[in-house]
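Case study 2.
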Amino acid sequence: MTKRILLVVTNVGHYDDPEHETGLWLSELTHAWEVFEEHGFEQTLVSPAGGHVPLEPRSLRFPSYDRTAKAWRADPSRMALLEDTLRPDQVDSADYDAIYFTGGHAVMYDFPDSEGLQRITRELYERGAVVSSVCHGYCGLLNTRLSDGSHLVAGRRITGFAWAEEVLARVDKFVPYNAEQVAKDRGALYEKAKLPFVSYAVVDGNFVTGQNPGSAKETARKVVDVLGRTP
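Prediction:
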């Protein structure tokens, strides 16, 4: 049967200071989309509020603005998908085999406290479906609790954008919190690559997480691998 993937994107277009724009880091979507598409997966976009998805300006510059990102922006049908994303209340988790949280600093604002996304994630995880994220996408997992009240990430090996990478990207003064530290505070067994900005992904059961924008392809491939082992 065709596997179905729910990809989560943001609705936020700026940091606390409106003069500093942010949004979806486009290649984190396009790299994964291409991998899933190559395997014949059916893909759907959802966002916390539904509708329009702004793009992170820095993701539209070299080296992030690669072949897949350029092709997406040049395709009106693909860009239209970012104008009409589903709301969580329009999603039945039973229809999907995996969820994949994309990143960009914007997700730090609207992913963590979306009760709808938390519901979908909890339901997928508890029935053995794949829960995955890349870069800041793991912010969407930090506040999710399981049916027994425990944090989803507690005791799980995960990765995500590191604080050292925030500093090197010169946005540590703008971000609303230290996601790496919050993950640890929630009981996650946080890991990261020895060097910043290199591809790094972690698999822990049906949990798949990638550290940074350069990890999107590796993360998606590992999601495919885990789904291949799932009935």
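The helical segments are 26-38, 67-73, 76-81, 107-110, 115-126, 163-168, 179-185, 216-228.
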